[in-house]
Amino acid sequence: MAFVALLLSLALAKTYLVPIEGEIDPALAVFVDEALSRAEREGASGVAFLVNTPGGRVDAAIRIADRILESPLPTLAVVQNAFSAGALVSLAAQQVAMLPGSEIGAALPVQVIPGVKYEAADRKIISALKGKFRSVAEARRRPAKIAEAMVDPEIAIEGLTKKGEPLTLSAEKAVEVGIADFQAATLSEALAKAGFSPEVARVDPGARVRAARFLTSSTVAAVLLAVGVLGLLIEALTPGFGVPGLVGLSALALYFLGGYLAGMSGALEVLLFFGGVLLLLAEIFLIPGFGAAGIGGIAAILASIYFTFGNQTLYVASVAVLIIAAGLLLALRFLPRTRTGRALVLESAIAGEAPPEEKLRPLEGAIGQALTPLRPAGVAQFGERKVDVVAEGEFIEKGSTVRVVRVEGVRVVVRKEA
């Protein structure tokens, strides 16, 4: 019994080490919550966070900071680098230790826009985040004004920062002004100075969290979204169901799986997205022109992305649009002789080969019958000849009488004959 009691006492004396590395995102917030819950459940003597991050999503950082503040266990942030959202997470710990060469601060919220490196967020967002930094600093009895200066470049503090740039502190300065408690040469020294047990149990993200972090990273998510939409668009423009549709659905499945694993998306986001896609397809293939269905479809898709990615919506959506546009251009450029390419560029084709222009020119003015629905591309018959055509203006139903109004290269344009 005495041996068992000794083992229990040693287990209770352990410090749980939780790494906060890379981009701060909702999946990391889930991981930190699970790690703290485990430490509390298993009776850890304290929790140390090894912080090395360039920042990330504000909402995820707030979730992590609030969870650390709520924990009844002693907490310590051991800072290698804590920029932007990482600074808020570090300030939430009861003690902050700075490792050699470490820095903390530079928390101005920004929007990342393709083609433009960074753009400062709206003043309302800056004000809200500044308030959160202040409240966390006050909760841990740290200088609130210095914490606010990390967020708001309009705050100038003599000897630390000039107006126009958010505050960043070196390890020595952070200790000097009271943002950090002490410097340490190593993690072991930091634990000793903080009064934490040297017996460490490291808690690393599991496979689910690692998968969620990868799939929900802003760039990967944008690529998955773009591939999904592009695959569905190509599939919608070609008969049957083939590889583009399968690839598109697989990409979208991964996109929403990452959001689900990270707690970022659920049934609402999925319904909004696919509802938006259906509205766009209806606008393209069923309703002439562009109106309420198209606008509603775009709005629903953007809402789905916003509910999933928050302040990263602009970046994710912009990158996805650029990839979709590039993908369509590549399809037009390099796939003109495939079935998919012919459908996209509306080339006339018989038996897989485009007839020369001089053979199509005599069709101008000819009257024939639509063998398939023309939405706008399809097949019509003129005498004994079957030709791929494209309708001008309204869509034309199968069996309608059509007239060739002009021939543009290998593109035959028809109009419904009254």
Strand runs, count: 15
Could you state the CATH homologous superfamily of the largest domain?
2-enoyl-CoA Hydratase, Chain A, domain 1
User: Percent range for helical residues?
Assistant: 40-55%
Q: Which structural class fits the helix and strand makeup? A: alpha/beta
* Strand-residue proportion: 15-25%
> N-to-C terminal Cα separation, in Å?
98 Å
Please indicate the count of domains: 3
Number of helices: 16
**Architecture per CATH nomenclature, i.e. the level-2 architecture of the largest domain:** Alpha-Beta Complex
* Outline type: elongated
Outline the structure in words:
This protein is α/β, with parallel strands linked by helices and 418 residues long. It folds into three domains: 2-205, Alpha-Beta Complex (2-enoyl-CoA Hydratase, Chain A, domain 1), CATH 3.90.226.10; 208-342, no CATH class; 346-416, Nucleic acid-binding proteins (OB fold (Dihydrolipoamide Acetyltransferase, E2P)). It has helices spanning 2-12, 26-41, 58-70, 85-91, 123-139, 144-151, 171-177, 187-194, 207-216, 218-236, 243-261, 267-285, 292-309, 313-334, 339-345, 357-360; strands at residues 15-21, 46-53, 75-83, 95-98, 103-105, 110-113, 116-120, 168-170, 182-183, 200-202, 367-370, 377-382, 385-391, 401-408, 411-416. The longest helix has 22 residues, at 313-334. The radius of gyration is 30 Å and the shape is elongated. The relative contact order is 0.08. Residues 3-8 and 343-355 have low confidence and may be disordered.
